[in-house]
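Subject: for your reference before the review

Hello V.,

The reviewers asked for a structural picture of the protein, and I figured it would be easier to keep everything in one thread rather than splitting it across files. Below is the amino acid sequence we used in the manuscript, unchanged from the supplementary table.
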Amino acid sequence: IEICSPVVFHNYTTNYGGPLRKGEQIKKSNNYQLLATVLINVCYRLYGEVKDRNARPRSLSHMAQLQVNRGCNQLHVCQDIFIRRLSKGQCHEMPFLGWREFAPDYIGPFRETTKVEESINLTLPSLLHAVFEPSGLKNPQFKQGKEIKNGRLEYA
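And here is what came back from the structure prediction:
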């Protein structure tokens, strides 16, 4: 991940009425205020890799199976689909940083004018690294002490 704008922390308060309340609060329909520190005006470049993970078998759609039968490299096809959708601004679900309230105002190919903010050097106390195991089971994993050096965070 390359951070391309100064990091701006913001205190955020929201009324919470979700399922993580205590049982008594849910019975009485009591909500509470949730305080958080969030990042605002975020601009970053995200790099990724398409990897073949045979850990969980999935049935392929008819069209996908035809591609495989013709000898198409399914990872290459996945990358092509991703790049095509990215160039059109399409995605299955709008990406967000932590909370849906903070959706990006631009998703697309890298812009030539966007540069890495190399003055950023931070240590993150805790960072969500993975939500699911390769098998698909939910098992959140966190990394402690990850460092952003010269505006870059190595996430892998």
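For the response letter, the relevant points are probably these. The longest helix spans residues 74-88. The chain has a mean pLDDT of 83.

Happy to draft the paragraph if you're swamped.

O.
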